[in-house]
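Morning!

This is the sequence you dropped in the shared folder:
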Amino acid sequence: MTRVRAAVAALAMLASAPCFAASGCEQPAAVCDTAVAGALALVDHGRTARVLTDEADFPGVLRAARDLQGDLAKVAGASAQEKPTKTAIIAGTLGRSARIDRIVKAKRLDTTGVAGTWEGYLLQVVDRPEPGIDRALVVIGADKRGTVFGLYELSRRLGVSPWSWWADVPVPVRETRYIAPGRFTDAPDVRYRGLFLNDEDPALGGWIKATYGGPNHQFYERIFELILRLKGNYLWPAMWGRAFADDDPLSPKIADEYGVVIGTSHHEPMMRAHVEWERHGQGPWDYTKNDERLRAFWREGISRMGTNESVVTLGMRGDGDEPMTQGTAIELLQTIVADQRSILTELTGKPAAQTPQVWALYKEVQDYFDDGMQVPDDVTLLFADDNWGNIRRLPKPGDTRGGGYGVYYHFDYVGGPRNYKWLNTTQIERTWEQMHLAYEYGARQLWIVNVGDLKPMEFPISFFLDYAWKPDAFPLERLQRYPADWAAEQFGAQHAAQIGELLTRYTQYNARRKPELISPDTWSLVNDGEAQRINADWTALAERAHAIGAALGPQYRDAYYQLVEYPILASANLNAMYVAVGRNRLYAAQGRVSANAQGELARTLFDRDAELARIYEQDIAGGKWVHMMSQPRIGYTSWQQPDRNIMPTLERVDARAGASMGVTVEGDTAAWPGAKSTPVLPALDPFAARSREVVVFNRGSAPFHFTADASQPRLRVTPTSGEVREDQPLRVEVDWNAAPAGQHAARITLRGDEGTRVAIDVPIVKPADTAAIHGFVESDGRIAIEAEHHARAVAPTGVQWRTIPNLGRTLSGVTSFPVTAAAGTTDDRGAWLEYPIHLARNGEFEVRVVMSPTLDIQHGGGLRYAVSIDGEAPQVVTVKSDPTPEHADFKAWTRAVSDSVYVGASRHRADAGNRMMRVWRIDPGVVLQRIEVVRKGARESYLGPVETPKL
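The structure's back. C-alpha cells below.
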C-alpha cells in the first residue's frame, strides 16, 4: 500500500467507523453523554431535539426522520418530549428539499464529497440555519438513501442498535446526548450491498406465517428498515414458494419508497420469482421449446417493475435452480440475454444499458464465463462462492467493465455435501479475508449474501454490511476489534470485550465443522484427548456465557439469549450429545456397562436441545420468535435435512452377572481381555507425551477392586488401586529425572479381585541430550505447528506476511499481502516462513499444510505453495479442489468444505536432528493455518494433536 493510499485509508477509517468505535467525543459529529465546546444537545433531561424535514422530500426520508424522532424519544426515556427551544435536527436531500437547499446556499455549506456522490451524506452543526432556529444539526444527503443513511447513522450514534426490533436489543436511556461540532461526510465504496432471504422454511417461513399471515408488505417493511439501518440498500426477497410482487403488490412499491433496491436471485430472471412460473406459466421452462411464452412471462415482470429502483437478473438456469443443459450452450444463453435486453429496452423506453442488470455466474453458469461467453459491458458480472464461503472466481487485477463486478456470498446453504441452516457458523475473519480478495481484485459493484432465515445471522450480517460500506477503512486491526465493538453496540461497554470474545470463540468452534456435519465419529474418542478437549472448550464457553448473562441487567435478557447465549448453549449441547452417542457405541462394543449411562446422557442432551429452542421461541420476548429455531439439525443421513430432529441410534449393554474387569488404553478402540493383540500405550516422552491414559472399566453388575503395578519405579500410575463400579481412568507418567536416556520398555499389570489380569506394554523415549534440541520436537511420530508461530518471515520488497487472528480451526491464519501481488519464486528472491523442527529418527515423513479452503480465483490450475527441508529443492504443491460435481477434484473439494480446511501434502526424507522447514509463498490467496509433520502409521484425529512444544 502506498503512503498516500495508507493515509486515505486511515482517514476513511475514522470517517466511517460507527460511533461505538469513535476515538473520542471531539471527533466531528461524535455523540457523547457530555458536551465538548460547541456541541449541540440532542437529548437533554427528557427533552429531545425536533427533527424537521421538507414534505416535498422523498417518502423514505420522511419515514427515516420519523424513526429518528422515535429513537430520540426512546433514548430520552418514558417522559420524553420534543425540546421547545430553538434547536433542531434538519434533514433533507440536495435538489429535493428546498429547505436544505436554502440552508446550503445561505450558510455556504461545503458539500464536497457529498453532492453528486452515490449515497453520500453530511452531518454538521450549523448556527442560525433558518429564521426561528438558533442552532441545528443538518443531515444532508446527496440522494434519497444518502439522507436516510445520515439519519440512521445518527440513531446508531445515539445508541440505538439496528437490531433493536429484530433482536430485541434495548435502547439505553440517557439523560443527555450531545453531538460534537465539525463536518462529517461519508459514502459507500461498494455500490449495491444486500441480503438474500433464502432457504426460509421451516424457520423464517413459519414465523412469517404466524406473525404476519404470510410474506406481505408488513413483513418486508421490517426487512427494509433493518437493511437501511445497517447501511445496506439491496434485497433478493424470499423465494421458497414465495413471490415478492405476486404475494403482495404493495411490497415492491413500499420498497421503492423506503429506498431499497429490489432484485431477484441468481436463477430468477427479469424480476419474476421462480414460483410464479408454477403459478402463471404455461409449458416447459425451456427456451428451446417455449421461448414465446417465456418472453411474455418476462415482459410481465419488467412491466410490473415500472420505475421502481431495481437490478434486473439476466440469463437462465434450469427449472428449480438446476443446470439448463448438459455442458455449456453459449449460443443459446447469449440469445436469451439478447432477447431479455430487448424486452428491457422496449418496456422501459430507454437503452438497456440504463437499467442496472446482473449476470450471476453461479455454479455451472461460471463455465459459460470460463468458456468465453460475453455479455454487454454494462451488465454486472456477479461472481459466486462455492456456497461454503470460498469465492470461485474473480476478475484479473486491473480488468474493468462498465457494469463492474460483484460477489454472491453464503452464510446459509441447502445442498451438498450437507445443508447448513441452523446457526451461525461463519467466522467474520474468513468473510473479511474472502471479501478483501474480492474488493482488491475489483469486485466493487455489488455484494450480496445469502442469510437464510436472517436470524440467527445477526452478527455476520452486521459485519458483512459494515465491511461492504468502506472496505479500505477495515484493516486487520479493526477486524480484530469488531466483535467487541459490535457487542458494545448491543449490550454496552462494560462487558463488551468479554462478549466479543464469546462471539469470536463460538463462531470459531462452529466453523471447525458445521453442526449439521457433526456425527458420533467426528471427534476422536481415543486419540489426542480430542473429544474431551471439544467438550471442555464448549463447556468453558457456556459457563462464561452464563456468567456474563447473569451480570448483564435484566433488560438485556432477550437480546443476549438470541445473540450470544442460545447459539453457545445449543452448540455446546449438540457437540456433547454426539460425543455421548459416540461413547455409547464405542463402550458398547467394548462391553462397558457405562455405555448405558452415555446413552442416557445422549437422550438427556437431545431433549435439552428441544428445551433450549423452546425457550428461544416461547419464553424470550414474550414468544415473539415462534418457529424461528425449528430448523432440523440432528439426524442427517444425506445432504438433505430430515423432517425433524431424530435421536441417533443408541446401543445397550446387558451387564454380566457379578463383576468383570475390562481395560482400554489411549490410542486404541479395542478392549482387554478379548482383543487378540497385546495392549500397548503410545510412547511416553518428556515433550508432548508426558502422560497417557488407561481406563479400567466394569463389564458386570457388581463392583470390583483393582490394583495397578508398574514394572519400574520411575513409571507412575495414578491411582494404583480402587473400587470400580463403571469406569476408572488411570494416569500414566514417568519420573524423567530418574529415567535413563534412550528407548525403553516398561509394563503395567492390572489385576481385578474377580480374577482378571491385563498386562500393558509402555514404551518410554528419552533423548540423550535435550539441551542440543532446538525447534518443534517430534513426538509419537508427529509434529504440529500453528502457522503464526514461525521463527522467521522472509518476503521481498512489496510483499509481507500477516496473521489474521482467530481465522481457522485452531488459532489463526497466515497469508501474504497484497493479495494481488504476482506469483513468487522458490529461491532467494522469494518469500517464505521458517519453522525449526527436531526429528526423532531418520527416514520419510509427510508434511501436511493445513489451509483455509481457498479456491483458484484466477483459473490458473490451482493455488500453489512449496515446502523444503534444509537445503533440498522446494517441492511445489498445487491445491486441487473444485466444486463442480463431475470434476476430478470434486471429492477433494467435498472433503475440504466438510472439514473447513484443505490439507496439502508433500513427502520428504531427512535424518534425525535439528532441521529447518520452509513453507514458500508462490500464489497469493493461500491462507496457512497449521503445519504438521507426520510419520507413516501415526495416530489421527480430526483437528490433529495440540501444538508440539518448541525447545
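Headline: Residues 1-22 have pLDDT under 50 and may be disordered.

More detail when I'm at my desk.
O.
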